[in-house]
Amino acid sequence: MIHKEGRISVLITFFFFAAVITALLLFTGLRPLPIIFSILVVVLFIFIAYFFRDPKRKTISSAANEVLSSADGKVVIVKEVEEDEYLHSKALQVSVFMSLFNVHVNYYPVGGLIIYKNYHPGDYLVAWHPKSSVKNERTSVVVETESGAKILFRQIAGYIARRIVCYAKEGEKVAAGEQLGFIKFGSRVDFFLPLDSEVLVKVGDKVSACRTVIARLK
């Protein structure tokens, strides 16, 4: 199933590529090079449609103190940092990098009340760059859990990604595993957790949105 954020893009791409292939074959005939080019165009279209896939994602049965991964991808950062945007305190940062081949739908890692949302325009450094968390275009969201823990997570655009979609609205209550948004073409999600959290992943681990527990809150 194609995600709603990609349906128009996929449709426009289909008609454009179909027109290009039709015109090429009409003017050149069934010669080897035009046929090879047409096959490559079809493969590219299949990849674009595949990128915007929206698989049915069943959230694991998690405890209230568990933080789920918001994205499919690979853990690239686990460290203690100073979070200066909202928490203004030390926090544990866990970052998940999404390659072009990962599902790019993002989900809420915890349930609770959305108390903060802010979009920041910025640069387009490669998503695994240490400074991308504060330099790149990004959207930050904070959810306060029923226990009072404030979890900040951030959608970050990468070198190729040029659009972040975020459905969060301040004052809304959300459940872990509900869709948060979508990032187009390669990106990263950062999590900022309380220092006493038990992080359950390490750098290099592959994680799955809604299925991998990345941390437990004390």
List descriptors.
elongated, eight-stranded antiparallel β-sheet, alpha+beta, single chain, 218 residues, Glucose Permease (Domain IIA), 2 domains
Q: How would you describe the overall organization of this protein?
A:
The structure is a single chain. With 218 residues, this protein is of the alpha+beta class. The chain has 2 domains: 7-51; 66-216, Distorted Sandwich (Glucose Permease (Domain IIA)), CATH 2.70.70. It contains 3 helices and 14 strands. The chain has helices spanning 7-28, 32-51, 132-135, and strands at 66-68, 73-83, 89-98, 105-107, 112-120, 138-144, 150-157, 164-166, 173-174, 179-183, 187-193, 198-199, 206-207, 213-216. The strands form 3 sheets. Strands 9-5-6-7-11-3-2-13 form an 8-stranded antiparallel β-sheet. α1 (7-28) packs antiparallel against α2 (32-51). It is elongated and about 70 Å long. The model has no long low-confidence stretch (mean pLDDT 88).
What's the N-to-C terminus distance?
38 Å
CATH class of the largest domain reads: Mainly Beta
CATH architecture of the largest domain: Distorted Sandwich
Please summarize the sheet with the most strands: 8 strands, antiparallel
* Count of runs of 4 or more consecutive helical residues: 3
Total strand segments:
14
Query: Which whole number gives the mean pLDDT?
Result: 88
Element-by-element helix/strand order: HHEEEEEHEEEEEEEEE
At the fold tier of CATH, the topology name of the largest domain is Glucose Permease (Domain IIA)
Q: Would you identify the regions where 5 or more consecutive residues have pLDDT less than 50?
A: none
> Could you say how many structural domains there are in total?
2
Class of secondary structure makeup: alpha+beta
Strand order of the largest sheet: 9-5-6-7-11-3-2-13
CATH superfamily of the largest domain: Glucose Permease (Domain IIA)
Beta-strand percentage range: 25-35%
User: Radius of gyration over alpha carbons?
Assistant: 20 Å
* Proportion in helices: 10-25%
